Amino acid sequence: MSDERDHPPEEPAAQLEGYLRFIDILPDTANARVGRYVDPLTGERRQFRYDNLIVLAELHHLQEQLGHVPTSNDLEEHGEISLGVYRDRFGSYPRALEVAGFDPVFVDAQEKARYLREYEELVDPEDHSL
Prior knowledge:
The structure is a single chain. With 130 residues, the chain is mostly helical. It has one domain (11-122). Helix content is 51%, strand content 0%. It contains eight helices and no strands. It has helices at 13-17, 20-23, 28-33, 52-66, 72-78, 83-90, 93-99, 109-122. The longest helix has 15 residues, at 52-66.
């Protein structure tokens, strides 16, 4: 007998329908960087309401719908998945955009400055190849 924890949760079909075709166009780097049910920040296997690929596919869906890479404001206004999910899952919304294959976009200078500070902390200070 199979334990229900061995199976991913089922997402509501209506919300997923528009996103499914975008999973196939996610960049290979997105598939390589995140597993469907693995927390991108900790590497732990988790049960999510929306798996990582669905979350990233929403960004491509919104980009097609809006005609530009969605800002966090666009996501809050037009997205099905909350901004908090992106922040919790990827550390920040701009990082989620990067994993999805987009250049990050910022709603204001403060958001960009925060992102750049976080990025600088990740860069090895001994690495002068940048």
